[in-house]
Amino acid sequence: MARYVSLGWGIRKERGGLWTRNAVRGTSVRGERRKRDGRVEWRKWDSHRSKVAAMLMRTKSDPSTLIPEPGSLCVYLGASSGSTVSHLHDHICGAGNHHDGKIIAVDISSRMMRDLVIMCETRPGIIPVLADARHPLSVAQYLQRKSDWLFQDLSMPDQAKSFIESTSKLLTEGGLGIISIKAASERWAPGGDEQHFDESESLINSASHLQIIERIDLRGLEDQHIAIVTRKV
Ligand SMILES: C[S@@+](CC[C@H](N)C(=O)[O-])C[C@H]1O[C@@H](n2cnc3c(N)ncnc32)[C@H](O)[C@@H]1O
């Protein structure tokens, strides 16, 4: 039996989890494990610390259909210090950005932005943007066209409302828009986590430009989180 399944260029799923082909050989971004396979170096993509990785582990569909193609134009809202963005970069851009991809990595925190900017120096193709994702037009100015793939992971209330606005302004028709929703970031409500998730899902469902493809439960890997995968129609 094969040791791994390829989820696309530079992403492997093994029994113990996900690995990406390191675009900056010899360095880890946040202390993650690295290993060699022939002349290629791989970095461990921890599904307990990345909602994209958790989603790829938990989806009931083919995980390779949820990630952007190498060379795509992507928007990542809530990049933090860039740990998940770096793994996406391994796949979308590759070493020296030979795939010619682009990831617009947005965060509101200047503290996180400092670390993100340092990481971007060695990873061409990532554009760090200090902005409030609730105002997508402040992000749109960094895009020459609408993006192929948009991921949102924001620790703030009204996550679904903001996602609807962002996908409307920043995502191309036919593109994938994915939101990771953290129940604890929303205002308190009597129904608890499940109520938050259901309300967010029905709000997204009511947006005429979005078609829901899958709701993925991330609990166990990422507590109090689900992901909703949509396609822009
Ligand atoms: C859970 S962390 C993201 C972790 C990251 N996605 C990863 O996997 O490495 C949430 C991030 O959202 C950012 N954030 C919260 N509100 C925001 C807003 N309105 N606009 C942009 N970023 C925001 C926070 O600064 C924080 O870095």
Write the layout of secondary structure elements.
Elements: E1 4-8, E2 11-14, E3 17-21, E4 34-37, E5 40-45, H1 51-58, E6 73-77, H2 83-92, E7 102-107, H3 110-120, E8 126-130, H4 137-140, E9 147-152, H5 159-170, E10 171-182, H6 192-205, E11 210-217, E12 225-232
Parallel strand pairs: 6-7, 6-9, 7-8, 9-10
Antiparallel strand pairs: 1-2, 2-3, 3-5, 4-5, 10-12, 11-12
The structure holds S-adenosylmethionine.
What would you say this structure looks like, in words?
The chain is an alpha/beta fold. It has a single domain (46-232), classed as 3-Layer(aba) Sandwich (Rossmann fold). It has 6 helices and 12 strands. It has helices spanning 51-58, 83-92, 110-120, 137-140, 159-170, 192-205; strands spanning 4-8, 11-14, 17-21, 34-37, 40-45, 73-77, 102-107, 126-130, 147-152, 171-182, 210-217, 225-232. The chain has a 7-stranded mixed sheet, sandwiched between helices. Strand 11 and strand 12 form a beta hairpin. Helix 5 runs parallel beside helix 6. The N and C termini lie far apart (39 Å). The model has no long low-confidence stretch (mean pLDDT 96). The protein binds S-adenosylmethionine (SAM). S-adenosylmethionine is lined by residues 50-51, 78, 80, 83-84, 106-109, 112, 132-134, 153-156.
